[in-house]
Amino acid sequence: MRLFVAVDPPDEAADSLRAALPADDRLRWSAPAQWHLTLAFLGEVAAPALPELSERLARAAGRSAPVRLRLAGAGHFGRQVLWVGVDGHIAALARLADRCAAAARRSGIPMEERRFRPHLTVARARGRGADLRGAARALSAYAGPWWVAADVRLVRSHPGPPLVHEALATLPLTGPPDAGAGTGT
After folding, report:
1. Whole-angstrom Cα distance, residue 138 to residue 56?
2. Which terminus of the chain is more exposed, N or C, with fewer CB under 10 A?
3. Structural domains of the chain ordered from first start
4. Which residues of the chain have pLDDT under 50?
């Protein structure tokens, strides 16, 4: 099964972003129900690994405090992916992502070594000629409402169409406050 660990923006944040998206029929917009901030992409995981993975992810979440965030700014990866950025306690979010990746590795799941770049994918180009720069510029000054991420989800991705994300576990962030998190304002 294809798995990832994510933080979901609350409805208020998703509604605010949805209202700010520019109209552009050259883009294939992601469904807001699928919006998430990926902390760790686990790829294909065999079902027998799931109990240990879930247990280790629960411990990682239990060592992490809730994180104050908002969606803000935008950019693109190459010519294909338009994303909205994240503002707030990014260092704490990165530590949480590291803990989730470590939990996966300790469960025997090979993880790619890559720098954590918090973002929310909002669209993909429909064709090779699509130019994402205009849409990224239109969203560059966007700053949504603040929220506190209080849990992470272990999610199974069922390829589409339609793409379906199934939550296998919701794990509360119950660790002590992060002294290095700052105000996030």
Report:
1. 41
2. C
3. 2-70+90-116+148-172 (3.90.1140.10)
4. 180, 182-185
